[in-house]
Request: fold
Amino acid sequence: MQLTIKRLLGALALVTTLGIGVSAQAQQAAPQSNLTPEQMQQIQTLQQQGQQIQQEIAALQEQVLTANPELAERNDAIQEMAMQTMREAGFNPEETLQQMEQLQTEYQTEGVSAERKVELRTLFEQNKTRLQQAQQTAMSAPKVQQARADLRTELLQAMQAADPEFPAMMKALEEVENQMREVLMAAQGGAPAQ
Reply:
């Protein structure tokens, strides 16, 4: 389980705030489609590139939020609004995160059998998927969408002011997603991948 709880929360916060990231469709479709080994390698390389860019954007976002306490407070309020929306829909994000932490701790414990590690990884991934689905539901709530849109505009402006390379990062992330889409389309009999 390479994904730590802290990284997961950070990734969810980035998606919550900016609404960016390599398409979940592209990430999830890869293992399920009939990709050739070459196409699978292309997808893996593109996913790694996308993750690297997302990490750079997340670091810049954190820098901007640290330098702009008012934006940070609004960001925190939106995240809490999303958590509350999840709770109202009958999902307990705190409990799920706690379960994920316990699973990760047990996974990293010495002496855990390979069979148990597979089971723990499966349970972790199931919880992660449920958390992401609940987050998507919360993000579709009109009050959350409006608050995110307002903050996103200001945050993007602040990020561009903090780092003139930010638009290039966003363009690179978009290009990675487009390339992943092309490879997946080619695997499904669409346009050939380049």
Observations:
- Residues 2-8, 23-27 have pLDDT under 50 and may be disordered.
- The longest helix spans residues 37-67.
- Residues 35 and 187 are 5 Å apart (CA to CA).
